[in-house]
Amino acid sequence: MKPTLFVLAAGMGSRYGGLKQLDGVGPSGETIMDYSIYDAVNAGFGKLVFVIRDTFENDFREKIVKKYEKKIPVELVFQDINNLPEGFKAPEGREKPWGTNHAVMMGKDVINEPFAVINADDFYGRESYKVLCDFLTKLENVNDEYCMIGYRVGNTLSESGTVARGICETDIDSNLTGVVERTQIKRIDGVVKYKDENDQWIEIDDNTPVSMNMWGFTPDYFQYSENYFVNFLKENAENLKAEYFIPLLVNDLIIENKVNVKVLDTPSKWFGVTYAQDRPEVVAKLQKLVDEGVYPSPLW
Question: What are the pLDDT digits (tens) for 14-53?
Fold first, then answer.
């Protein structure tokens, strides 16, 4: 059975503004998502699932789904802040979605095979999809064996400002032992540094693996997610900004020795539109890839 690609597209880019998932940045108006799906289909993924907000369903179907549904099966699921376990309700004034792992939970009824999770607005690179698909293809009828594409931090920075990255710790077998979210990382005088809890800039190696929210799971992950979400809500239900992130659950499952998470190295260079001023650089990088023959234009 071919793995599924699960695309997180419910977020509105607060720093960038607008529906950046639908922004045409390729030479023929392609979105970053178009390149992701092109790479995923060529790598061997067999189905697409998008999680979006229902408020832009019509626009999304018209601009995105139409392009793919004749090439690969496509499903839409919806993230809603009121989609909560029994006994819980969103607090008054809550506008922010409940985070990436809540978005993942929305796929439970349509995903029954190993699946990858990606952000809609990140360019991950074709090598990453191949590595991920090859790993997931071997996981049929396997539980508790997950993976994460570990990008080299030096390949993931923005020239427009600091970025947030999950810095990964691994054992000698490349199993993930923990992810520490660092919200301010940038290159200073040629050296990659992050700001720690004491407002100190700490140097790290360019090849340090970081999470770019490119994960591989088996369907048992949904049950873990639901169980842990109840505990999360007991502590955070009234917090208007608390978010249920994927690394929160993954860290917990690793600490409790319930799962193994393999960190898979990739040479791919990540890029994306974190800030509005990143857009021209992304356009130039995609044009360069087309000029080099890596991608056709138009893609499909």
Answer: 444 445 556 789 999 998 989 999 999 999 999 999 999 8
Taking the C-alpha atoms of residue 60 and residue 52, their distance in angstroms, rounded to an integer, is 8
pLDDT digits (tens, 9 = 90+) for 102-157: 999 999 999 999 999 999 889 999 999 999 999 999 998 899 999 999 999 999 99
Every domain of the chain and the residues it spans = 4-151+210-291
In this prediction, residue 273 has a pLDDT band, given cuts at 50, 70 and 90, of confident
- Which residue's entry shows tokens 């909560």? 84
Q: Which of 259, 236, 16 is nearest to 119 (CA)?
A: 16
pLDDT tens digit string along 237-261? 888 888 899 988 999 999 999 999 9
The answer to whether residues 264 and 149 touch, using CB atoms and an 8 Å cutoff, is yes
Relative orientation angle of helices 246-255 and 220-236, to the nearest 10 degrees:
110
**pLDDT band (50, 70, 90) for residue 225:** very high
Q: Which of 114, 111, 79, 115 is nearest to 98 (CA)?
A: 79
190 backbone φψ class: left, alpha, beta (φ>0; ψ -120 to 50) = left
Is 4-151+210-291 a domain of CATH 3.90.550.10? yes
pLDDT, position 180: 86
Q: Would you give the distance in Å from CA 37 to the centre of its chain? A: 13
Tokens linked to 199: 């407002």
Task: State how far Cα 202 lies from the chain centre.
Answer: 25
**Distance in angstroms (rounded) separating the CA atoms of residues 257 and 266:** 26
Q: 249-254 long-range contacts, Cβ below 8 Å, gap at least 24?
A: 249/101, 249/224, 249/225, 250/146, 250/148, 250/176, 250/179, 250/215, 251/178, 251/179, 252/228, 253/224, 254/176, 254/177, 254/178
